[in-house]
Structures are given as structure tokens and as C-alpha cells.
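Ticket reopened. Same input as before:
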Amino acid sequence: MPSAARHDKLLFFSLVPSAVTLLGMLAAVIVVVLNGSWRSIADFGLDLFSKSVWIPGAERYGLLGPLIGSITSSLIAVAVSLLLSLSFSIFASDILRGRARDLASSLVELMGGMPTVIYALWAAQYLAPALRDFLMAPLHGYLGFIPLFSEEPVTGYSVFTAGVAMGVATVPYVSFLMTEAYSILPSTYREACLGIGASRLETAKILLSLCRPALLASLLLGLARAMGETTIAAMTVGNSMKVTACIIASGYTVPALVASQFGDASLYVYSESALYAASLVILSAALALSFVGLSLLSRWRSRILV
Amino acid sequence: MSRARSLKDKLFVFAVAAGFLLAVAPLFHLAVVVFERGIPALVESGLGFFTDGPPSPLSTEVGGIAPAISGSLILLALSLPIVVLIALFASLLTLEFPGNPVSKAVDVAARSFASVPTIVVSMAVYSLVVVPAGRFSALAGAVALVMVSLPYAYTSFSTALRSIPSTYREAAYFIAMKRWTALIRVVIPMAKKQMASGVLMTMARIVGETAAIMFVVGRFRAGIQVLPDQPVDAIPLLIFDYALAPYPVFHKVAWGAALVLLLSYAAVFVATKMLVREVKL
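Engineering reply: fixed in the latest deploy. New output:
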């Protein structure tokens, strides 16, 4: 019979292969992206990121448009999901009670696991026309002199539409994180608020100020998720390489560019590599954002749960 | 409360309630719309929707999505066991040896994996598997699906295992159980139902994933194909392609497929909820 220490060691080594597989897969993805993007970055240099062209036939590539589109649309998405998720979390944890609260948390869970392609289909055929008629057209009509709204929304597919649609799709994720943060606050704070006779608004203000780092972390994680969102962006962003200050004009995001161009990329010399370079930017941004978000969250948690 | 203060409070509650409704409204509208547009497609082709191939662009008949359904099932069958095994062992490792550098690395890697855009995984698997193998295949799709669903399975298993109070494990050690025996006989059985719901949610994720398999499975739509080394199709991929196609009949098929996908997701979700409710009792 092996000794206890040897038994432990055996157990450890029998579990290591799966761990190595997991680490290896992440490393493989990063290595492939680095390796794939190296060629175009070396040969095109800064032009790859400062111009906005996609003409594979002439081997001319520039990723500025999709990069700007990615940043703008995911910022819009985060703004949308901040508004909705914050209200959701406050309403679900402070105002709803018992059954209704369980139902609300089930609903958000149901939304969170929903295949994004269904969101994409809905956004492309219902959200985009609705936004065009009720929001983008009036904005263009009355505020068209501002560069942000300078172009007439014809199809409804735009960076703004993609941002709103991705925001709607990230609401469940951000809501989940925010509700969790809001509900793990020690109940003494809530009781203290009750004790001084604070109104619901004042209570919410005080409690929210306590979980500010966690809220920021939820937003960063939501941003990371929105940046990598593919199906929704590809179906609502309008697919145009033009760089413009107008957010209601059609644009591109990096995942949308990859989704529409990677299939034919192997026919050209630099196409694949340029797409890898674009996704390298998105990948590093997403990894960095989620790293900062997760460490903020864990630091906050260890501080608040004394 | 002064009048101004109570008015402010009421306004606040109103605003928060409005935001809440706005946050959940898309779910209801989406469900209504998917039924409204999906049912006609299903009614028009009846059972054929599950047994026939998709229509040609100018055909008047709706046809079916049989290749996509069979493809999705094959991809699920290939990837789910691998995901469950790797996630289970990895979560056992981080549970049993929390201070070990390997465990720490696994924990960080699993969490970073969750933020890797799924389309990037698809590109990487294309270069790693499809190019060397010389063809698109269900296996390549399974590799991509394993990568994107691992973090979810790992997180849900870890949460389930960690929810078992350590007193039970200590009791098991006390009656001379080895670590492994304690895991198999005490910890895993206690966390069984929560882990099963984790498996179900992972399953839902695998079936609903679009971007991860975009460049690797080959979108084979000419018939039902069951070999793992041959190209296949998947329901989300078909919805994505057909929704972007300019033909009305393709849009119809896309909505029908979306209804099928939504219903199967809802079924899995309800099953998950029922499992977890039993745990609470």
C-alpha cells in the first residue's frame, strides 16, 4: 500500500495532463495569432494600423476603420449595458422580493446563455430598423450638423446599431456580475442605512459607492466581451471600410471583418496575416481588460468581506 | 420624509423599474418574433424541416435543415465528453492543490480563455488543424468548441465542488479514506446535481456557438454526414449564413432554424433549473 504522501503525488500527477492541455490550448492560440500576424506587421509596418483599406486583389491592407469601429461600438455597448444592468441589479436586489427576485435572476440567466446568433438575427431584422426610424433618423434630422450624426441612416446598419445590439446582448453578463457584487455586500451596511432612515435612493447611492470597484470591473469585463462579439457585429455593423466621425454610418469591427474576409483570405498573400494582426489587437485588449477587471474584482472582494 | 425627498425617491424607483423592464424586454420581443417568423417555416415544410436538405436560392419550397441538425449533434457528441473530462480534472486539481503553481496557472488560464474572442479561436484552429489536415472536418470543429466551452465548464465545476463544506471531506479523511476516494465517494456525489447542471449549460453553449466553428467545419449542406473527419454544418452557422443571404426563402429557413435552436436551448435551460431546484430541497 503506497504511503499517503505518495498517494497525493500520484493524484496530482494524474490530474496534471488535463491541466497541461488547458494551458497548451491557450498558449497555442496566442502563438498562432502572433505567428500569423508577424508577416504583415513586418512588411506593412505602421501603415497597417493608420490606413483603412481592404483590397486583397492589390494586396493593400489597412485596419484603421475596423479598429476604430471596434472601440466605438464596444464603448457604446458598455454604455448601454451600464444603464440597463445597473437598473436591473438595483431593482432585482432592492425592490423585488422572494419569488419575483428568483424569477428575475432566472430571466437574466436565460438571456445570458442564449445563442448570440438569435440575438444577431433579431437585431438585424428588428432592432436595426427600429433604431433607424425612431432614433437615428431624428438625430440626423435635428442634429445633423454635429459630425457624429452627419450621415443619413439608410439601412439602419451602423456602428451605433452594432453597439446597441451588443450592449443588449452583454446586459445579462454585466447584470450578473453587478448583482453578485451588490448582494455580497455585508448586510451591516444595508442595516446601517435602514437605521439612519435613508430612503431607497440614498441607500442605493451609499451601497453603490461601496461597490464602485466591482462595478468598474464588471464594465471592463463587459467591454472585453463586446470587443470579441462576432455574429451580432457582423450582421448589424454594415461592413464598410470608410473611416468617419459619424456613428450612425455603416462601419466595420475587427471580428466582423474577420468573419466576412477570413474565408477567402488564403487566396491572397497578406490577407490572412492582416486579419491575424487585427485579431492580435483585439485579443491583447480583451486579455488585458479581463485581467484588470478580474484582479480589481478579487481585490475588492477580499477588502469588503472582512 | 419631506415631499421633495419622497418625490425624488419615487422617481428613482420609477427610473430603476423602467431600466429593468428595458433590460428584459428584448428577451420577450425576441421570443415573440422568433415564434412569429419561425412557425410559418416549420408549418410549411412540416416534418420535412427535420429530414430534408436546405432549399436552393430560388426554390419555392422551404426544405429543411437536416444537415445542420445532424452536424450540430455530431459536434456536440465529439466535444462534450472531452470538455467535461478536461474541466473535471482541472477543477479537481485546483480544488485539491490550491497552492500549487500549476493549479494557479490553470485557474488564470481558464479565466483568460473566457475572454479570448471566439472568432480568434476559430482562426487559430483553422491554422492548427484544418490547414495541416487539408480539409474542414467535424473534428476540427470539436477542437474549437472544446476551447471555447472549457472555461464555462471549468468555472461551473469549480463552483459546484467548492460549495461542499470542507467538514465532509475531513470526516471522510477521518474514517481513513484516501484523497481520491474521498473525492469519488463524498465530494463528487454531493456536488453531482450542480455539476450536471453545469454540463447542461456547457451543452447549450456548444450547440449555440457560431463564431468558433465559422472557419473550421466546412458548412457541408448537401446531405447528412456522420463521419468525424468530414465537413459538417451546424444550426447557428446556417442561421448566420442564411440571414446574410439575399434570398427570401433563405431568411425563412433561418427563422425556422432559430426557432428550433431557441426551443432546444429553452428545453436545456428548464432541465438545468429543475436539477438545481432539487438541490435546494
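The domain at 66-280 of chain B is CATH 1.10.3720.10 (MetI-like fold). Chain B touches chain A through 85 residues (CB under 8 Å). Please confirm and we'll close it.
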